[in-house]
Amino acid sequence: MIIPYNCTGEITLALVFKLFYSLFLFVGVLFTAPAILGLEHVDDTCKSLLLKGRYNATGHSVADSSSSSVTSDLRIPQVIHHGMIRLVAVVGERHSGTTYLRNLLKANLDPVSHFVRDNFCSFKHFHQVKRDPCPDLNLTLAVVIFRNPYDWAMSMHQQCYCRKTNQEYQAYMENVTFSTFMTRDWIQDVYSELAQPPWRGPLTDPQSGKSYYSHIMQCRAIKIRSQLAIASWAPHVEFVRHEDILHPRDAHRWLSRLIAKYKLLPSKSRTLRPIFLYKGMEQERSFNAGKAMSESVWFNTSLLETNKTVREQVHLVTKMMDQTVEVQELCYGYLMSA
Ligand SMILES: *[C@@H]1O[C@H](CO)[C@@H](O)[C@H](O)[C@H]1NC(C)=O
Ligand SMILES: *[C@@H]1O[C@H](CO)[C@@H](O)[C@H](O)[C@H]1NC(C)=O
Ligand SMILES: *[C@@H]1O[C@H](CO)[C@@H](O)[C@H](O)[C@H]1NC(C)=O
Ligand SMILES: *[C@@H]1O[C@H](CO)[C@@H](O)[C@H](O)[C@H]1NC(C)=O
Ligand SMILES: *[C@@H]1O[C@H](CO)[C@@H](O)[C@H](O)[C@H]1NC(C)=O
């Protein structure tokens, strides 16, 4: 296949080409998008709150076969007069793609004009409330990322990042099955136990006096509500699904919209820089969107069909999750039938 492009920034284009080449390997092997329910029935308040930050997502992100001019599609619009936003603050639950999103923004926004960080009014994984350490909200764009509850819960079971020390973590997680993990008290979670009202867990630990949640999905639901509520006190908030920016084509679409909407200054590179590596971490990790999607139960439903354990896990997540939040309030209709 010949991909036409004019020769500006060959290196970036070569990388884009390389990534797309590997992604094309997936074309033909179709991902089946899970049934996305509820989207047609979201009420108007919900729509105006959430969909303002959402491009017309398809719910799945397979490179389509009509992409003969991939590289020119990935051109980033150039903005001459940029707006007020100086700080872009990424917010999201663990395993929602915050590191990926931060790197994507960092790589594609002009570093002199926009500082991108993992902190809004608190570190990205905490409940955010308007309080003293908030940056100047008029100059800040908060970007909140959500991920489907299925991949999310399974990732949390792999590594919950929920204890202060490794030792406590080991003690808490040793031999804990998915079902136990999903149903037991969600207590002493480092990113939730300090939640302020009204986001506090409904239960109280008599020993420490700290609040906790009946189970992990209740904690997730309340945190999602707190994240949606940011729009009620911060003037510039965008909501995005992890699923909608994983594929470079989707990432590009979303970023282009974001740049135009907030008059952000893009980086000097004239095309999207997709993320291959997580930099700035103790260990560089490579990132491969195709691989991530093939291992995701949300994208690759054959995992569900061929594996009974996965089916049971999906069933349990559906049962435990707060469907009002996941399907209606989140507007995206995160629901799979197992
Ligand atoms: C989304 O895009 C599809 C095809 O591009 C179009 O048919 C559909 O009406 C769009 N939906 C919304 C809500 O804009
Ligand atoms: C933020 O913008 C609003 C509306 O333009 C203005 O009323 C307010 O004074 C600004 N706040 C700060 C701290 O600049
Ligand atoms: C966890 O499982 C391993 C292997 O079956 C066993 O040796 C160990 O004692 C178990 N630990 C706990 C805390 O049950
Ligand atoms: C879906 O997962 C199965 C099992 O791991 C794998 O063999 C297959 O290649 C995946 N499908 C896609 C489209 O990635
Ligand atoms: C089924 O899924 C579980 C959970 O992801 C995994 O541990 C197991 O290896 C899978 N089984 C097969 C046969 O792929």
TrEMBL record:
Transmembrane segments: 19-39
Keywords associated with the record: Membrane, Transmembrane, Transmembrane helix
Protein name: Sulfotransferase
